[in-house]
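Hello,

Our lab assistant flagged a job as stuck in the queue for most of the afternoon. It eventually completed. Since we weren't sure the result was trustworthy after the delay, we are filing this so someone can double-check. Below is the sequence as submitted and the structure that was eventually returned. Let us know if re-running is recommended.
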Amino acid sequence: MSSTQPNTSGQPAGQSTGQRTGRLLLIPNTLDFGCLDGGTGETPPDLREVLPMGAITAAAGLTHWIAENAKTTRAFLKRVGEITPLRAPLQEQDIQVLPRPNKGGHKGGAKRPDPQEDRQITDLLAPALAGHDVGLISEAGLPGVADPGAAVVLAAHKAGIAVLPLSGPSSLVLALAASGLHGQSFAFVGYLPVEAQERAQRIKDLEQTSRKAHQTQLVIETPYRNTALWQALLQHLQANTLLSVSCGLTLAQGWSRTDTVERWRKQALTLPDDIPAVFSWLAA
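-- returned structure --
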């Protein structure tokens, strides 16, 4: 095998003895789950408008899954099956659900799993150790990026299981590309504190970091808090800071817009409370 080609044999490099180990395939998802079922009458777009055919074919060939939510995973597979036949019917798909993080952890943070969670995550990879390819799927976008599935990917590496990421949409990358802000130095900092005073201080600290490092800062929020976060950003960022918001990316009504905080303060903006948004800024 050429050194420029990925190892897709199912064995980590240098491992050639013993039973074949399955791979962990990072299956991209759409960004529309939960956005088109609110009585609008809109139907989800054809998967081929969002996902590469290679990813769709790979998903159709799997029967073992690790997911955040079994119901939405079945909905995804149903859409896959409308394009190419599934290897096994929906009712025969083995879908294992990720353990929920402990309460009190920092949302979107880098908190390490406790030993019990670590064992649970490792157990999810048993089919791969038995020789089956396993799909890891997020609720939206790319698994492992702003997603608890990263713990599964790390566990796979520790267990000697080959990891194969497949191309698909990432709301963070799409928002950054559409913002016009600095795309060569950026940081995704997850969720901001909910408490008003802590959130205000965090915004000011991140703006200072952006100014010193000339670095774009990206954050997300639970959709029903979109407006509260937006108002906090307008209140606490400096007037000449460039502020961008991208909402409903890959949806028919999706949009992105960038302007100075000063100009944003002079215009009304209504953000939906049921569609995800990505917020980013670059301080002058």
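-- support follow-up --
The delay was a queue issue, not a problem with the job. The result is valid. The chain has two domains: 24-165, 171-282. The chain has nine helices and ten strands.
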